[in-house]
Amino acid sequence: MENNKRVFVPRVKRDYIGTYHKRTDAYAKASGTAPYAEDLALKRNHPDMVYMKMLRSPYPHARIKSLDTTRAEAVPGIVGVLRYDDPEVLAMPAFNSEWTDATNTTDKNKAWNLGCEDRHVLSDTAQWVGDEMGCAIAGETVEAVEEAMKLLDIEWEVLPFCLTIEDAMKPDAPVLHPDINPDNNFIPNYPMWGPDTNVNWGDVDKACEEADVVVEVSCDYKNPQQCALDYWNCMCDWSRKDELLMICDSYAVDQSRIFLRDMLGLPMKDIRVITPYEGGQHGRANTGEQMFFLASALMSRKVERPVRYTQTRKEHFHDTRTGMYHTVKLAAMNDGTIIGVDFNILANTGAYADASLGAVKYVAPEWIECMIAAIPSVRHTGRAVYTNIIPASIMRSIGNIQMNNIFGRGIDALAEKLNIDPVEIWVKNISCHGWTPPYNCVEKVIRDGAEFFGWDKRHAAGKGELIDGTKKRGMGVSLNYTWHTEFQEVRRGPIQVQIKLNPDGTVILDAPTVEVGGGSNTCAVLSCAENLGVDFDNIRWIYQQDTETGLKDVVQTDSSVSFVLAESVRHCAHKVKEEFLGMVAKKLGVDPKTMDMKHGRAFVVDNPEIGMTIPEYYEGIDVFENGTSLNPITNMYVHRLDPQSYGGAYMAVFVEVEIDTETGEIEVTKMAVASDGGTILFPAGAEGQLAGGQVQGLAEALYEEMVYDDATGIPLNFNFVDYKFPTMADFPDVDPLPMEVYEGNGEYGACGVGEAAPCCTPGAVGNAIYNALGIRIDETAVSPIKILNALGKAGE
Prior knowledge:
26% of the residues lie in helices and 23% in strands. By secondary structure, it is of the alpha+beta class. The chain has an eight-stranded mixed β-sheet with strand order 3-5-1-12-9-10-11-20, with helices on both faces. It has a five-stranded mixed β-sheet with strand order 7-15-14-13-8, with helices on both faces. Strands 16-25-26-27 form a four-stranded mixed β-sheet.
């Protein structure tokens, strides 16, 4: 392969699956007609709707001693105030905003953070600057509510705070959640998560003693923000006592309904949750258990009007990825065989636990099973600590990106110590549970990617030529599993889809999922066109998810909805086609087993001239004939996922950087992203995910870092001016290389692509920086000043 653009060629040629095709929602999104939650929650649709905001704490740790709302309530246009000491608020149970990873649907008593209910509705105690607490105000206009907020008379008890893990672990540190842990700021190990050391096989200490080489690498991984363009919003209408309607941009409508049921005590039949399109979310919407849903509902019941809540850009700095201080120790033999791996994690969970333990305790063991299951001795120890900063929660590539970052750096350090190409270390040691390396997918992905990228031109660390007198270049690589395959998604439960074939040959497809930009809906439509035998443009996908009228939603997480829906739709389409072909065969007097359908025309396979289109069949039937009608053919199919493991799929990211040793500026000059997707269902979408994911990966590697004032605990860059992430001007040339190696469950044997797309990038960038300079920078968000500090040139 030469280093140029490569066009994907599928391993099996099909009519729609695996072809370059437009998105099913391309026109709606390009024309601006695709509706989002805020488009539904408008005054013209709900004339009596009011607007709500909540008090946001100005302190990192404080308690309300007294609150006087008299002046606020006197502002013209104010219709309601909800306080922390109102009876209906005090009646709300404690909760956390991460009952599930949203793959499955669960209730309060089965939440994966069960026992860690550290959140309270409109609490009187703030845990970070910006914490929503104390009071909510509703009014006729946003401006009136903002004015009323300024007139709240609050007496605060300002409490000691801690922003860092180190401060939170000190003996004299304030205990932030005494109801959860009265002794210190560590989050307790609840049954779901197990002990601190939750992976421990073989004998890591003995492996380190017997190894020829032992390397240890550490990295401080910052907590970047999702930067979603669709800010959290909802509209709750509980003006009718027998029904609560919520329109929101949660992408888990059924989970949000269960949350409202458990917290508000309503039966599910009386709760309706609607979500149309969502404008990107990058994992943010995994947390369908949000306090502002409850506050909006309680306010609506109080004022007997619909209540709309929408965050601003600053307010949408609401939760983040989990920051982690990571250390890995690798023990290996001289031939590159790794015999022991020891991980230690200390996570900064911020103000609330949310999904931090999921990243530390749930994802990490899965990562180990999918990456280093063949290594004879592995140990993983992880703990999480409360601090008074923005809460850490769900973000795309949760846990995986941090694990890959530290392990990828460890592989690079080991390869250098042994004088072996890192590619060979990866191939020699990586496989999933039940498979022995070298694993065909790992080898194919990383070797093809290396050849395409020009990896053979990589020099030894720090030994490259100077460019323009001050610049040095380096290359780096990292590898990860692509996350997920079907057997890992069994906990979703049965997948429901429905197809309605109309008499005019058009199709209504209910493949229920909230589209967030990734294109999973297009995969479902492609599968429908492929397996039903109708034209793509004749299929209408139902975009609005509605718990009252729709099927159980398939939540957009784990990068699996594309293939889960494609397989489910395939089965359903076959049922519909089988029924229609039987009807046509009866009319033609042929055996339905001899027939097929393409482009909406049923025909005899061995004699294609014998056949008819869907409209032709319906136009020719006698509606008074027994057993015939103009009714559409409808089939609702329930697909149960296969728990059988067929191995795993992998991806590799190659990066080249150019660093100016005088200014510290870092330019990523080129990238290649080789990723196995089993069957690539929608190549344009897969390439978009692989390339687009690098915006996030590069942002975390080089740009994104939240800055706080140490003296006050106030965040200083919760805006898109001071909070840095790459723009188009910073983005390098990225070559996405979708591949088809894995052969998994179902007809397509497909697996995830998008979730893992950023996973390898911070590690690969860190390794490229080391290759350029010969100096390891052991933290993310590697800014120019950090480069100059490493070179001893800071302040020059």
